[in-house]
Design goal:
This protein is 38% helix and 19% strand. The chain has 408 residues and is an alpha/beta fold. Helix 1 (36-44) packs parallel to helix 6 (157-171), helix 3 runs antiparallel to helix 4 (91-109) and helix 6 packs across helix 8.
Length: 408
C-alpha cells in the first residue's frame, strides 16, 4: 500500500517531512499493524538461559574459588595420580584450613534460590533485553503498551502474563513454575512495580490524527500527512484513509434533516475534531460535554452509530455519567486513552465535582480493579444522547455551562 504526499513535502532520513521544490509526488510505504501475538512471539526468540544462582548470589563464585584455593594449599597430586598431603603444613594447620573450607561450604549451602529470586531476576532480564534490542514496549500508569508499527496498542493483561511466563521458562525457570498461573500473575505484578519503561512524551501543542495511511499533523504552521512515529504515543488508528478530496453527501443530507441549522452543524463538527486534542495542551480548552437531546426516532441513535464507525469501536466507550463519577474510579480507568465516551444515560446520582474535572480535561483519579489508584490525564471526551435533560443534578451555572445542548 502507498499514499501520495503533496509535492512540497519530502520524507527525510530521520522520518521528518521537509519542504522541497520537487515537482513530483513522493510516496512512502504504509506499514500494516502487527498483531500482538506475532510481536510477542518474535520477542520471545531473544531470550536465552541465564544463571539464576550466580545472579542471585554473586558472592558464590568468590566463595567457591576460595574453597578451591584452600584445598589446593593442603593437598597435591602425586606422580601416580593419588592425592597426598603437602609436607610444609602441620596437622593443626591442615585441620584449620579444612575447617575453614567446610565453613564456607556450609555458608554456600544456605544460599538457596526461592520464588522471589526467580521473579525479580526474570523481570530484570526482560527489561534488560527490552532495552538492548530497542523494543517499543512501555508502561503507562498500570497499562502495558506495544508499538505495532502504526500506533501504541494496549496489551491484554492475560496475554502479557503468558508472555512473561514463557520468557522466564526460556531463561531457565522450571516448566511447572513458569506455567503456573500464580507465578505468571506475580511476574506481571513484579513488572508493574519494578520495571521502568518510559512512556514517550508527545508534543501536546500539535494535534495528530492517526489514519490507515499515515498521521495527519495539525499545528499553527501547517497541516501535513506524514509517516507514523512511535514518539507521538498515539493509542488508536481510525479505520479509514485520509483523502483531502473526499465528500460525504449522505452524511450532509442526514445533518440537514435532523439538525438543519448550519451553525450548529459546524459546532457539531468542531466537537468531533476536539476529541483528538489531548488534555493539558494550550491549543484549545473548550471544557464542554455534548448532549444530543430529543424524543425518540429523531436521528440521535444514527449519530451514535456514525461516531462509532468513524472513530472505531475500540476507541469509544459507553459508560453512564453515574458510573464515570462513582467514588472508586473503576469505570473512569476504562476511558483512559479512549477518544469518546458516548452514552445514553445521563440522569441518576452523580458526583458533580468529578464530572467538572472530566469535562475540563483536568487530571482525575481512577483505579483498575485490584490495582493502585492513579491520576489520569488523557481520557475520552463526553457525548450523551438523552430523551430528557438531567434533573437530579447540581443546579448551578458552573455545572450547566459545561454542556453543549442540541435538540434533534
Amino acid at each position: 500500500m502507498s499514499i501520495t504526499i503533496p509535492p512540497n513535502l519530502l520524507q527525510s532520513e530521520d522520518n521528518n517531512l521537509l519542504p522541497t521544490n520537487d515537482p513530483f509526488f513522493t510516496h512512502f510505504s504504509t506499514p500494516v499493524p502487527m498483531d500482538h501475538k506475532d510481536i510477542l512471539n518474535k520477542l520471545l526468540q531473544q531470550f536465552t538461559p541465564i544463571n539464576f544462582d550466580l545472579l542471585a548470589f554473586p558472592q558464590k563464585e568468590a566463595m567457591l574459588s576460595e574453597i578451591e584455593n584452600l584445598r589446593n594449599s593442603v593437598v597435591i597430586e602425586g606422580p601416580d595420580g593419588k592425592i597426598i598431603t603437602t609436607s610444609d603444613k602441620t596437622e593443626s594447620e591442615i585441620k584449620d584450613i579444612r575447617d575453614k573450607a567446610n565453613k564456607i561450604e556450609d555458608d554456600i549451602s544456605k544460599l538457596k534460590l526461592n520464588e522471589k529470586h526467580y521473579l525479580i531476576l526474570s523481570i530484570e532480564n526482560v527489561v534488560k533485553v527490552a532495552k538492548e534490542h530497542n523494543w517499543n514496549l512501555c508502561k503507562n500508569l498500570d497499562f502495558i503498551y506495544l508499538y505495532n508499527g502504526c500506533y501504541w496498542s494496549e496489551i491484554d493483561k492475560e496475554a502479557f502474563q503468558k508472555f512473561l511466563g514463557e520468557a522466564s521458562e526460556k531463561m531457565g525457570v522450571t516448566k511447572f513454575s513458569a506455567r503456573f498461573y500464580e507465578f505468571r500473575k506475580k511476574l506481571f505484578e513484579q513488572f508493574l512495580t519494578s520495571s521502568y519503561l518510559p512512556t514517550p512524551i508527545p508534543n501536546k501543542e500539535k494535534v495528530c490524527i492517526n489514519l490507515l495511511n499515515g498521521t495527519f499533523e495539525i499545528s499553527n504552521k501547517e497541516t501535513i500527512l506524514r509517516p507514523f512515529k512511535s514518539f507521538d504515543f498515539l493509542t488508536y488508528q481510525l479505520p479509514f484513509e485520509y483523502n483531502k478530496d473526499s465528500i460525504a453527501p449522505m452524511f450532509n443530507a442526514y445533518l440537514d434533516k435532523v439538525l438543519p441549522d448550519i451553525g450548529k452543524q459546524k459546532i457539531l463538527a468542531e466537537f468531533l475534531g476536539y476529541v483528538f486534542i489531548k488534555n493539558g495542551g494550550n491549543s484549545i480548552k473548550i471544557e464542554k460535554a455534548l448532549i444530543l437531546y430529543g424524543t425518540g426516532a429523531n436521528g440521535k441513535s444514527v449519530f451514535f452509530e456514525i461516531v462509532n464507525a468513524l472513530l472505531g469501536v475500540n476507541n469509544v466507550s459507553s459508560f453512564s455519567l453515574q458510573s464515570l463519577t462513582e467514588e472508586k474510579g473503576f469505570y473512569r480507568a476504562k476511558i483512559n486513552n479512549k477518544l469518546v465516551n458516548y452514552a445514553s444515560e445521563i440522569n441518576g446520582k452523580l458526583e458533580a465535582s468529578i464530572f467538572k474535572q472530566l469535562v475540563s480535561g483536568e487530571p482525575v483519579e481512577a483505579c483498575l480493579k485490584y490495582g493502585q489508584p492513579f491520576s489520569m490525564t488523557d481520557y475520552a471526551k463526553l457525548i450523551f444522547n438523552c430523551n430528557e435533560l438531567p434533573k437530579d443534578v447540581e443546579q448551578t451555572h458552573a455545572f450547566f455551562r459545561r454542556f453543549f445542548n442540541y435538540t434533534f
